[in-house]
């Protein structure tokens, strides 16, 4: 955007972050007395006379008076709501919204700290407006007074009235008890998951009659309501731990034992981690109400209303806020686990990129929001100070949005089109459009009925994901420590990769190799330069890359080495996994993948030529014997730096150096399969870097695009790669511009975000925690791994007949997803974007699950 100032030499340049921060501090310092008065006035008006939904006249007028005093043009009673207001500032460009809440709770006033929300948003708006004017920055800010958050959904009404139509990003904060975060070394979080709500209102119409004289002429509306109440109370026993049902009788007959009641009314609210889950639960409540009407003969008028949606966490906005509030001396988590609260900012987050940060304030006696103790806490000077600091941080985030085009593209992709929600759509009283139409049960049944049965998947369905977090269709949240067998090093739906995918998909996706495109050549130059090879040969999957490498090795053996035609040998080590195509299963020692798929090529194997003995992995003597037995016809040895599917077997660094030496001695190609170990997983960019060798060919796949699109490749030098002539090998999708664009960006992100270093550091934390757990229990036989590719081996002889699979089921119930082999090897490979807090949480869940497993009745 137009973010330019004139320097001393007459050149136009952007103001630095430090300059922007100094300007914000200067502005807020000068206005702090006014902000203190505003905070006190809003606090006092709420406390002395709590202003409930759409009745916030005093707070509305207090804020509007201040903004007018500062010279802003204020629209009072905006968008048809008596206690809403709008203030706009700035020029054409992107628009950032600050939401100000100020409504109260009956009898306990600002027990949710809405006075602090108003203060923070006013601070953020004024500071951003000041910087825009001072530096001549293009962009607009909106301060929106949003009434009725506690009850009524003011933001939903404002959405439907068009208040957010021209908004690009929405920002706000909310205070909570700092006790919830101090044990995590923080004072809040930039983003969090919460609950959504859906309400059901029922009115029963009966027929009045004298209860003593002619009761048979009556139809009892109170009986219908009581029946529904009992039904719903029983339903409460069958809902998920993350769900809630609460309700009230809002109209009942005047006390009279002589009259059959003819009219009763009840209202219930369903809460669930997602709006879809809340709607489904509301449907069950409705059925309970209908059962009451059927049982009594009453007529039922029922109305379902969508309430507050779950928050869509926007990771780029969270990262920006986390960085900027840290500069103000407050450390917050980037994201936090579920919070048992609902907010109409969730509805905003479905159609606009949104931030809803939480800032902790000191409280007495561990009190929580919506209590008299929190009322007192929200009125303290330190609470005011933290609201102001939050406003400053939100101002800096707003400037990131307005000034940084790349950052804004990342921000908007989180909402635009990812979750099946159109960024320009309007919510009809919270009714949300989502792409998910199957429940978990529906999905499992459909796959069982219609899909080939080549996988035995765990019975869990993913519906959406972000980072290391996944949710099922019912809204249950899990941490994914499997990461699609290391295909998700960047985490699910990394915003930078999503932005690249969407951008390239809107321009060009496929040309085949019959024509050139402008993206693949950039990728080829980048990837060969990054890894130090002459050529790259692109394909789609890891197995295809393995097949390609075998073909290239044979071609090289015949054309360069001079091996007699059709005599070339390629072998690997026992326990390998290079794919499930015919050539790759010929390499394998796993009978399950080989049986009934023969005949297999005898010159592609993992056995010592002329024997039935396997070439044992990480065994130098076995490798010596295999090379000698194969002789001149040996074309290539293909090996994984760590055998992932075999149970995370880490090769000694000297083993790979020995293999390199043997290949040099016998003029054999060394092929390193980095499909699982590459792209930062082991703590270095490629797994073989630990041994200091240089293979003749390197295979990359799986996480090549961060899980966004199938893409793989083979890297090698001219002497090997140019043996493949035009027309002798190819793939329609090999080198397609969509995959190439995302792959190039994914490799850049590994460097930009130091993901390999993160893997090395957090891998040590993980293994230390696992070894400590091993010392505390007798069922962990082995802990092994490197970086964030690790495994524990469960001694299933000591688990009372229970298996590693059963242990993983217990962990799943607690929100942690891992997978065990039949032999009790549990592989632990979380995304490389995992945090140390999530590592510690996972270790606690593992320990709790092991303790639970050991107390289960014997399964023998």
UniProtKB/TrEMBL annotation:
It is an enzyme of class 2 (transferase). Coiled coil: none annotated. GO terms for molecular function: hydrolase activity; identical protein binding; ornithine aminotransferase activity; pyridoxal phosphate binding. InterPro entries: Amidohydrolase, Aminotrans_3, Aminotrans_3_PPA_site, Bact_exopeptidase_dim_dom, Class-III_PLP-dep_AT, Orn_aminotrans, Peptidase_M20, PyrdxlP-dep_Trfase. Its cofactor is pyridoxal 5'-phosphate. Its EC number is 2.6.1.13. It comes from the Eukaryota. Pfam families: Aminotran_3, Peptidase_M20. GO terms for cellular component: cytoplasm. Belongs to the class-III pyridoxal-phosphate-dependent aminotransferase family. Belongs to the peptidase M20A family. This is ornithine aminotransferase. It comes from Gibberella zeae.
């Amino acid at each position: 955007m137009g973010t330019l100032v004139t320097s001393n030499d007459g050149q136009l340049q952007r103001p630095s972050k430090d300059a922007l921060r100094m300007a914000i501090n200067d502005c807020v310092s000068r206005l702090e007395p006014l902000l203190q008065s505003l905070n006190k006035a809003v606090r006092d008006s709420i406390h002395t006379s709590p202003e409930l939904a759409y009745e916030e006249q005093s707070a509305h007028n207090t804020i509007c008076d201040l903004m007018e005093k500062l010279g802003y043009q204020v629209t009072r009673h905006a968008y048809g709501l008596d206690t809403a207001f709008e203030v706009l500032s700035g020029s054409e460009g992107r628009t950032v919204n600050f939401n100000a809440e100020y409504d109260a709770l009956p009898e306990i006033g600002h027990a949710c700290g809405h006075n602090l929300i108003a203060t923070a948003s006013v601070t953020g708006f004024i500071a951003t407006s000041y910087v825009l004017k001072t530096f001549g920055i293009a962009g607009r800010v909106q301060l929106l007074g949003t009434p009725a958050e506690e009850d009524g959904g003011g933001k939903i009404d404002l959405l439907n009235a068009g208040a957010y139509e021209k908004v690009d990003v929405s920002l706000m904060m909310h205070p909570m008890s700092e006790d919830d975060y101090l044990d995590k070394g923080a004072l809040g979080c930039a983003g969090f998951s919460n609950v959504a709500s859906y309400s059901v209102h029922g009115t029963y119409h009966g027929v009045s009659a004298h209860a003593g004289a002619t009761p048979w002429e009556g139809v009892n509306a109170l009986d219908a309501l009581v029946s529904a109440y009992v039904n719903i109370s029983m339903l409460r026993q069958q809902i998920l731990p993350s769900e809630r049902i609460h309700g009230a009788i809002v109209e009942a007959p005047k006390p009279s034992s002589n009259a059959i009641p003819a009219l009763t009314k009840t209202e219930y609210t369903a809460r669930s981690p997602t709006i879809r889950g809340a709607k489904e639960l509301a449907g069950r409540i409705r059925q309970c109400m209908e059962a009451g009407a059927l049982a009594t003969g009453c007529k039922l008028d029922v109305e379902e209303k969508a309430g507050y949606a779950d928050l869509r966490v926007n990771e780029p906005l969270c990262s920006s806020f986390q960085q900027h509030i840290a500069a103000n001396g407050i450390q917050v988590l980037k994201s936090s686990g579920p919070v048992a609260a609902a907010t109409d900012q969730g509805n905003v987050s479905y159609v606009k990129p949104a931030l809803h940060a939480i800032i902790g304030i000191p409280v007495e006696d561990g009190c929580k929001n919506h209590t008299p103790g929190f009322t007192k806490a929200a009125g303290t000077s330190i609470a005011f100070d933290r609201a102001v600091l939050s406003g400053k941080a939100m101002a800096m985030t707003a400037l990131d949005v307005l000034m940084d085009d790349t950052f804004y593209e990342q921000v908007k992709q989180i909402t635009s089109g990812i979750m099946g929600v159109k960024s320009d759509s309007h919510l009809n009283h919270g009714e949300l459009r989502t792409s998910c139409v199957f429940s978990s049960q529906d999905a499992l049944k459909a796959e069982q009925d219609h899909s080939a049965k080549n996988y035995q998947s765990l019975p869990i369905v993913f519906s959406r994901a972000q980072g290391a977090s996944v949710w099922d269709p019912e809204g249950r949240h899990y941490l994914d420590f499997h990461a699609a067998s290391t295909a998700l090093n960047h985490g699910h739906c990394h915003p930078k990769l999503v932005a690249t995918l969407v951008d390239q998909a809107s321009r060009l996706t496929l040309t085949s190799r019959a024509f050139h495109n402008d993206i693949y050549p950039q990728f080829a130059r980048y990837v060969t330069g990054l890894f130090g090879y002459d050529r790259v040969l692109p394909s789609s999957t890891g197995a295809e890359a393995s097949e390609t490498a075998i073909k290239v090795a044979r071609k090289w053996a015949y054309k360069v080495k001079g091996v007699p035609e059709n005599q070339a040998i390629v072998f690997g080590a026992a326990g390998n996994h290079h794919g499930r195509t015919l050539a790759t299963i010929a390499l394998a020692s796993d009978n399950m993948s080989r049986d009934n798929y023969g005949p297999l090529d005898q010159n592609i194997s993992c056995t010592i030529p002329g024997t039935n003995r396997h070439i044992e992995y990480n065994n130098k003597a076995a490798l010596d014997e295999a090379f000698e037995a194969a002789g001149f016809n040996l074309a290539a040895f293909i090996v994984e730096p760590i055998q992932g599917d075999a149970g995370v077997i880490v090769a000694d660094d000297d083993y790979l150096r020995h293999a390199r030496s043997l290949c040099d001695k016998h003029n054999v190609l060394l092929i390193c399969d980095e499909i699982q170990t590459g792209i930062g997983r082991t703590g270095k960019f490629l797994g073989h870097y630990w041994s200091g060798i240089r293979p003749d060919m390197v295979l990359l796949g799986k996480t090549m695009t961060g899980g966004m699109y199938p893409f793989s490749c083979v890297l090698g030098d001219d002497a090997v790669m140019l043996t493949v002539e035009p027309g002798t090998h190819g793939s329609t999708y090999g080198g397609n511009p969509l995959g190439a664009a995302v792959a190039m960006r994914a490799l850049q992100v590994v460097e930009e975000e130091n993901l390999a270093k993160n893997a090395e550091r957090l891998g040590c934390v993980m293994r230390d925690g696992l070894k400590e757990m091993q010392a505390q229990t007798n069922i962990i036989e082995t802990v092994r791994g490197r970086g964030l590719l690790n495994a524990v081996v469960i001694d299933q002889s000591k688990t009372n007949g229970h298996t590693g699979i059963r242990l993983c089921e217990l962990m799943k119930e607690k929100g942690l997803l891992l997978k065990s082999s039949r032999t009790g090897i549990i592989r632990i490979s979380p995304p490389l974007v995992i945090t140390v807090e999530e590592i510690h949480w996972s270790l606690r869940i593992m320990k709790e699950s092991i303790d639970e497993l050991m107390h289960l009745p014997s399964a023998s």
